[in-house]
Amino acid sequence: ALFMENARKGSIVSRANSIGSTSASSVPNTDDEDSDYHQEPYKESYKDQRRRAHTQAERKRRDAIKKGYDDLQAIVPTCEQQDFSIGSPKLSKAIVLQKTIDYIQFLHKEKKKQEEEVSTLRKDVMALKIMKVNYEQIVKAHQNNPNEGKDQVSDEMKFNVFQGIMDSLFESFNASISVTSFQELSACVFSWIEEHCKPQTLRDIVIGVLHQLKSQLY
Questions:
Q1: Is residue 149 part of a domain?
Q2: Count of other CB atoms within 10 angstroms of residue 1
């Protein structure tokens, strides 16, 4: 009886073990699989890599453009921003570019104007140097010949020559100029200058005045 009882208990235990092993084998091993799944790194596809690189490049390009416009607004005086605290609108990119172009054109004009002024000043300096040399020669000649120049023309004679030239010019001016209106006066002045103030005409006037004064003296 004892042997039969032990055999029965052993049979029950073996059947329980077989049922447990069968149940255990039918349930998936989630712990091992989850651990293996999390340990395996995610592999980014080539398409995703290209998309990410393109996004980064586009962001850099936009940042560079924005920095360029910000630099232009800081450099160009006409692009100075107003006080945003009072609700002033921000300058658009088109306005920034147009103001930059206008400022560059203004700088070109100023540069050309300065170059012309420098050229004029250089000519003046050259003329002054020539005059300086001539005056030095005159002073040197006068020092070598102190008696020279005593028979020079008097101031009265110089005034008479000047008066004769001005009288002759005023006669033609008075005969040619109309003073009915300022417009007519302006137009007549330019036409009179072109006609009566030519070098040859002035030369003839001066020669005539000198001959007249010579006849009065002698």
A1: no
A2: 5
Number of domains in the chain: 2
pTM exceeding 0.85: no
Question: Would you state the pLDDT for residue 207?
Answer: 87
Average pLDDT value over all residues in the chain: 76
Range of the domain at 93: 44-114
Q: What are the tens digits of pLDDT across the range 154-191?
A: 777 888 888 888 888 888 888 887 777 777 777 788 78
Beta carbons of 142 and 165 less than 8 angstroms apart: no
**For position 43, what pLDDT does the model report?**
66
Residue 178 counted as domain residue? yes
- Per the listing, tokens 């250089």 go with 122
Structure tokens at 30: 């989630």
Please give the torsion angle defined by the CA atoms of residues 174, 180, 186 and 190, in that order, rounded to the nearest 10 degrees.
-40
Q: Which helix (H) or strand (E) holds 109?
A: helix 93-144
d(CA 48, CA 53): 9
**Is 107 part of any domain?**
yes
Q: How far apart are CA 212 and CA 218, in angstroms?
A: 10
